[in-house]
Amino acid sequence: MKNMISRRNFLAAAGVVAAAGVLTACGGSSSTAASTASAAGSTAAAASGDTIKVGVMGPLSGNVSVYGQAVVNGATLYLKQVNANGGINGKQIEILTEDEQGDATQAVNCFTKMVDEGMTALIGDVTTTPTLAVAAESADYNMPMVTASATAEAVTYDAETDTVNANVFRATFTDPFQGIKMADYAYQKLGYTKAAVIFKKGADYNEGLAENFVNEFESLGGTIVDQESYSEGDVDFKTQLTTILGKDPETVFCPNYYEEVGQILSQAESVGLTVPFLGGDGWDGLEGYATNDQLKDTYFCANYAKGSNPEFEDAYKAEYGQEYPNGFAPLGYDAAKTVVYGLQAAEDAGLEAGTDDYKQAVIDAIASGTIDGITGTFTFDEHHDPVKQTAILTYVDGKPVLKEMF
């Protein structure tokens, strides 16, 4: 039987230390389709009036704001649609939005602020390290929490202690899942038997995908001819790419974020390394950062393929005046759907928002539920990870298109 992790044990397992005391105040906003009144205590605030307070957190500024804005916009779009359709049993959702600036300590401060404001459930965080910090903090409150996009296994499950983080779920697939899936695709579907890997060291996302790709590819009978790494802030990858070129791979797995991937593909071309590259969902947004030739025969996995849900895409454009920017927006939408699914169960049970029973009812409903999302219909496994297919995308005329579901 899985154990519920304590905050102290979570911090130790994740290697995250939250600073004590009050630091820089979070920048955020509160919005709702109905008027709201302020309240003193967390439970009282959560239950006041005819609203249900839901937190939405992400890096709305800083280096990874392209992901945070997409998640927050996607989540907010769905919550507004729920309000426009009458809310949850007549109650409107009040959206508490916070910018954690891509920083783990700031993320914990934002979480605490929203708890004080009466948050009943959280959609967030977005990237892995801040999400680990918030998940650790949330355990003390048993706060229902659904991250749209944090992929590190430890967000929901500590494999070393076989412990599930009972209040935390995710709408995206995990780092191990992505690495394994792309190794399977490379070997089984594309027929590659020799691969190299280049990844950023010291980053949970990049290292997680790389390690699992290597292990799976070798278990299938393939050969990893070289593994190269680089450090945060590096912009010159030619030494690593030249070394890879000398090992004669058939493909290169590059589990990094799109801006660095664009630089790597350009420099690979310059040193004569022209084999196809493969990647994970961090490639989402790569178009414009690499040429058509550099993107030829490349593949990456993602949760969502453009054009698969025109209703969502049209609604996003109508709300924000632009097309959805990347696959993180659909994931934000589905994370919000997941939270609302749980809230509906708690409201149907007639429980008081903000109470322990209410939060547990939200968690129990999500754990046993089926979410009809736009990234697929999914349930949750025993580790609170979604069970769903993966979209494999390739590039045609410099734009990502769905190759197949795999």
From TrEMBL:
Alphabetized Gene3D superfamilies for the sequence: 3.40.50.2300
SUPFAM superfamilies in alphabetical order: Periplasmic binding protein-like I
Entry keywords, A to Z: Amino-acid transport, Signal, Transport
Segments forming domain Leucine-binding protein: 51-397
Signal sequence region: 1-25
InterPro entries linked: BCAA_transport, Leu-bd, Leu_Ile_Val-bd, Peripla_BP_I, TAT_signal, TAT_signal_bac_arc
GO biological process: amino acid transport
Family per record: Belongs to the leucine-binding protein family.
PANTHER family: LEUCINE-SPECIFIC-BINDING PROTEIN, PERIPLASMIC BINDING PROTEIN OF ABC TRANSPORTER FOR NATURAL AMINO ACIDS
Protein name: ABC-type branched-chain amino acid transport systems, periplasmic component
